[in-house]
Amino acid sequence: MPITPAITLTANLESILGGVATAGYLRITLCGFGPAMPSVPGVGMLADAGIPKQLGPQGGAPLSQLLWGNDVISPSGTFYEIAVLDINENAVQCGNYQFSGSGAIDLSMAPQIVAPYGFILGNLRYVQCTGAVPGTIYTAPGQVIAAAYNGILMRPGIDYTALGGTITLTFSTEIKPNGQPDTISAFCVVS
């Protein structure tokens, strides 16, 4: 068990216009310990856990911070939320990371923890499905998470079933007296 933090996290903030962003910041927060008091067993309690630590401004040199690896923190399952902040300290974007072992880690090379659904949330789309009206079978462009009838969320297993990108309704769509067809839409994972 290390008696000091063994991870050196480095980050070089760049401008979208090219070159180093001299005024950027990083915010690092330990998360995922729930109601338990986080500690490094045999070393001590993490008294400032959950309080964001801010690094910066960058000032031209890479930002660097020693961190405890999540593999030595108790309870298990902790992670770091790391946010990139702009010159006004507004969050530009953030991600969740777990670090283990020891050594230097470049934030631009560190893998992010993927959302709990097993896909990146940016791949979730709300789209209109294809199918004949009247009809009961509709197709979405990806794995269906939820479906809607004329914009109203339907109940899975009661109003419809979904297998992959295929939605099977327990009723038939129709064309309304005003000539407008019913629509079936889906929240789906599109790659």
Detailed description of the structure:
The protein has 191 residues and is mainly β. It is built from no helices and 16 strands. The strands form five sheets. A four-stranded antiparallel sheet has the order 5-2-7-8, with no helix packed on it. The model has no long low-confidence stretch (mean pLDDT 86).
What Rg, in angstroms, do the CA atoms define?
A: 24 Å
Any idea what the shape is?
elongated
Order of helices and strands: EEEEEEEEEEEEEEEE
- How many H/I helical runs? 0
Briefly characterize the structure.
By secondary structure, the chain is mostly beta strands. The chain contains no helices and 16 strands.
Notable characteristics:
mainly beta; 191 residues; 0% helix; 4-stranded antiparallel β-sheet; 16 strands
How are the SSEs placed, and which strands pair?
Blueprint: E1 7-11, E2 25-31, E3 39-40, E4 44-45, E5 53-55, E6 63-67, E7 79-85, E8 91-97, E9 103-106, E10 124-128, E11 137-139, E12 143-149, E13 152-153, E14 160-163, E15 166-169, E16 184-189
Parallel strand pairs: 1-9
Antiparallel strand pairs: 1-6, 2-5, 2-7, 3-4, 7-8, 10-16, 11-15, 12-13, 12-16, 14-15
